[in-house]
Amino acid sequence: MFARILMLALALPALASAAAINLDLGGANSWRVRNATMSAAGVPATVPGQIHSDLLAAGLIGEPYNASNQEGQKWVALTNWTYTRSFDASAALLAKQHVQLVSLGLDTIASVAVNGKPAFDSDNMFQRLRVPVKHLLVAGANTITVAFSSKVAAAQAGADACDVNTSTICPYRRDNPVQHGWDNANFIRTEPCSFSWDWGPAFAPVGLWRPIALEGFDGAVVRDVLVEALPASRATAAASGAFEAADAFAANDTSDAAMVARAHRRTDRELNLDAWDLQVTVFVDGGVLDCAGAALAVAQAAAATTASGATVTGTVSVTVGGTAATAQKTGVVVGAGAEVAVEVKLSAVQAKAWWPNGFGAQNLHNVTATFTPDAAAADTASLTVRTGFRQVELVQDPLPGGRSFFFRVNGVPVPVKGSNWIPADAFESRVTRDTLAPLFHGLRDSYQNMVRNWGGGIYQSEAFYDLADENGIMIWEDMMFACADYAVPDAFLKSVAKEVVDQTRRLQRRPSIVLWAGNNENENKKPSDTTNVKAYSDLYFRTVLANISALDGSRPLTGSSPSNGNETAAAPFAWDDQSEFYGDVHCYLYDVDNWDVTAFKRPRFMSEFGLQSWPSALTLAGVFPPDQQKWGSDLMTNRNHHPQGQEQMIQQISMHFHLPREPWWSHSTPALEKRVWAQYLWLSQLNQALGYKVEVEHFRRIRTECDAVTPGCNMGRMYWQTNDIWQGASWAAMDYTGRYKMVQYYTKKFYAPTLVSGYCVHWQDCAVYFVNDLVDGAVAPADGVLKLSLHSWNEGKLVEWDVPFSADPASAKRVWNGTQAALLARANGKGEHGCSDATKCILVMQAYNGSSLLSQNELLLSPSMNVVTTMMPPQLAASVGPPRAEPWLDDASGGAALPVFDVTLTAQHVPVAFAWLETPFAGHWSDNGFIMTEKSVTLQFFSREPQLTQEALQKNLVLSDLSETSPEYGTNNGWPKL
Ligand code: BMA
């Protein structure tokens, strides 16, 4: 609950000033919006909001996501829209020395007028604009007007007008036609994917997308608080006894193993993590005019007539909540219309560290900065921000053949387990803490510790970063530039510089943000291409990164993703942005067998990879008309924005599975057609889940394996992508409604801290690894038992045997190996058929530490499932138990109790290939889509619906598995089930 109150208080950071007057100009239906052909009375409009949500609320357009509405709503983005509201300016407000209009975001090309007089223009949706407007206000009724131009038209005009004499380059960005969107978003500073992407729609909305307010004050306000924290000292007891792999090697050992251990060394035993030195930067705002780009000229012209006011002097003091720490700086001088940055240092603040998910608690602390004027006539102002103290390094030390690339937090190397985040809606005002909380729950619950806020979207809301801070989800924060070159005339660079400064000042205090990155996939320049290289350097090195590092020295920077890390800066570009020896890599494998472990790269850090899938039929049925609910329908084609996306998915599925089809003896019926459609969608998810599983397990196994010839030593994987922007084909693990695709369930298994993982190279030479991410947890040789067993599809478990193993902390190691032939031979003479060939059996692996099961996993020994012919119909049944109330979701209710059900699933025959439970209710399962090896298993359903009953869940539960999708698996008995 505490977190929620604080969040509301922080929504408009400057509202905390004691005697200042703040007039929020937002609110539901508080504005009117119209276009040139509508009456001046306009349509009720909500701020923050978007034009589409206003037109939808007024009944003027349908839900943009329904059916093919997107196509019919293109006119909205091609139209200019004018927002107006009236408000009362009180005598008390007008009596204030300064009245600033503060906008936290206008999307994108806008002119703002107060009482009909120009106040400022805007051309960058990511800027915060502060403009003195007292001279434009009158006592009593006032009006404010924000006139937006179509951003699609503005982008096109920018491209048309691009002049190589001022821009160096004019890079027209053509989107792929299958995206059904618009080109040239790179000519304006807007959300790139609002013009369409290969997983998202083209709505290009305009509107006041972030809050706007009038702020009146005498003297000054505290505008921003930035906090840099470092462990106060090295620990006095240097060798605390903590395990350190590098200790095992003599100082003069130059072997690859020694080099790897040294590069990945743990330094936390050298740090005192209970006391922190803080450098707090407090921005004190004396009514500054703060605009750039198009905004500036108009604002300057408007403000020039009324520059007034007196200098204020005072004291800035800083306190850290829950500690005795306090410090101050006296004699601070703030000129009227100026802004000063005041640095206050606090040493050895006694406070606990913030840790990423899985490595410790997410301790958060309030830091309050107060400006107390010397003269009583001015206002006392203060601002409280929530932060956390941690040290983060991006370690790039020598490794065989190159350099490492991994994050060390508070001295502990953290293998990154994550995914890439895209905007959660095309209309940001629909994204609330309630939208985000289930997604962050999914991240935390699946052992993820990082998401990359991808550079083609937006700098996210406060709620997003609150949840990241609270859940220990580290953020790799891209700046919003993606998949394009950019023209860089001076005005553009100035606009970007202000954007970057604004966002850094807003976000710097967030412990979750561990890296600032210049862009997504733009660093593919060749040093010979000097024109592009200069434009690139001007934008990212001299403008973006230079402005960030001037404000924040507390976290690392990288130019791009992918890049060669520090090698890039030296080059000055990635000599090979797919190098597996340096930096990070993106790699998509659409036309190869994703069950073949030799297909995968061995990079230091894999920041993007993945396969497309569809949301489930339940999700699509919410927006697909019945006649479109079939494979290959127009809407299916329309909603796959990836070139050849459908063909690739079919190819991928058919590499390993039979494609679903209607039975040859039956006439097609709508019910059959829908069933086949649902099975296609499900198989696309199964294909994705297994592909990610095989690839992630590969990355985790090679944590410490690399030499000068064979790369590896992988310490990071983030699959593409966490979430969805709408209901369409994509790489997401959680769909637009929050429903888990199968890969989300698999994520919880392949990212678990302890993992047993097997593979066979080309189905011949096999090995089993044990991966241990636990920093202090080891498995002693006396305790580690690997139980291996062979299960045949038609006879169940045939043979089981034990293999002893041990594990060091923070390690990955091979614990068993042998040929597949020898493995299968273990079942000779067992049961009726044994494992006469690889299509008959699977390997089940269980890793025990004493009596506790650390990890269970299965290895499909056959190169594909479509050669398996011996499955038995499992005859699944489920019994739902009574609900118990658990506050499992930290949504806006502050974690109110929600029903959790135990559900017992039984099968007549095991193993079951990919047992699947489905319900229309919002919520998720403790596991799903799994290979069922026991005849009875108890799962949990975590409902997001407070009123869900045992009876309703029991009645609306659908059970299925792979055998239902084709008789050829050996289960023609009863096929197909309807
Ligand atoms: C990468 C991303 C995105 C894209 C994804 C899937 O290129 O950076 O641009 O959506 O691949 O194609």
Q: What can be said about this structure in brief?
A:
With 978 residues, this protein is of the alpha+beta class.
List the ions, cofactors and other small molecules found in this model: beta-D-mannopyranose
Instruction: Please compute the radius of gyration using only Cα atoms.
Output: 29 Å
Strand order of the largest sheet: 3-2-4-9-6-7
* Helix-residue proportion: 10-25%
Number of helices: 21
SSE-based structural type: alpha+beta
- On the 0 to 100 scale, the average pLDDT is 93
What is the overall shape?
A: globular
Top keywords for this entry?
978 residues, alpha+beta, 6-stranded antiparallel sheet, 21 helices, 30% strand, disordered N terminus, disordered C terminus, binds beta-D-mannopyranose
Could you explain how this protein is built, in words?
The chain is of the alpha+beta class and 978 residues long. It contains 21 helices and 46 strands. The strands form 13 sheets. The chain has a 6-stranded antiparallel sheet. Strand 21 and strand 22 form a beta hairpin. It is globular, with a radius of gyration of 29 Å. The protein binds beta-D-mannopyranose (BMA). Beta-D-mannopyranose (BMA) is lined by residues 197-199, 456, 482-483, 520-521, 586, 608, 720.
